[in-house]
Amino acid sequence: MRLSLSVFHLFKPISNVLPDSSLLIAVGLLLGLILKESGAHIAYTLDSHVFFLYLLPPIIFDAGYFMPNRALFENFDSVLLFAVVGTIWNCIAIGN
Q1: Mean pLDDT value across residues 36-64
Q2: Short-list 68, 53, 51, 54, CA closest to 16
Q3: Going by C-beta distance under 8 Å and a sequence separation of 6 or more, which residues neighbour residue 79?
Q4: What one-character DSSP code corresponds to residue 67?
Q5: Predicted pLDDT of residue 59
Q6: Residues 5, 28 contacting (CB under 8 angstroms)
Q7: Is the pLDDT of residue 47 over 70?
Q8: Could you give the residue ranges of the DSSP H alpha helices within 12-68?
Q9: Rg (CA), the chain
Q10: Mean pLDDT throughout 15-43?
Q11: What is the pTM of this model?
Q12: Can you tell me the distance from the alpha carbon of 63 to that of 57, in angstroms, rounded to the nearest whole number?
């Protein structure tokens, strides 16, 4: 993951337009396609615990950390609305 981010930052025009999280998702898709098309008979499975504990947090952290502050504060009302409504919705849905 760090290697792909390092290579990504070498190409400044691309890294100014696309967030790093989109690169990590694209690299994952590319590696998945390569493994699928390689014809290897080894079954590659992704455990949901591994995904939620080790892969998803760096992607979310990276996307949130490098988000422009101006865009966040211009849409603060919408962000707050979705956060509050989404939290209440999930409490009701999961609490049953």
Answers
A1: 81
A2: 68
A3: 72
A4: S
A5: 79
A6: no
A7: yes
A8: 12-17, 20-37, 48-50, 56-65
A9: 18
A10: 78
A11: 0.47
A12: 10
* Residue owning tokens 């504990």: 53
Give the per-residue pLDDT at 2: 62
3-state secondary structure 50-65: HHHHHHHHHHHHHHHH
Q: What dihedral do alpha carbons 4, 24, 57, 78 form, nearest 10°?
A: 130
What pLDDT, on a 0 to 100 scale, did the predictor assign at position 1? Answer: 59
Residue partners of 19: CB distance under 8 A and separation at least 6: 62, 63, 66
Please check whether residue 24 is in contact with residue 5, taking contact to mean a CB–CB distance below 8 angstroms. Answer: yes
Place of tokens 């079954």: 43
Whether the CB-CB separation of 25 and 1 falls below 8 Å is answered with no
Pair of tokens at residue 27: 């690299």
- CA 87/CA 89 separation, integer angstroms: 5
Query: Tell me, what's the pLDDT at 9?
Result: 63
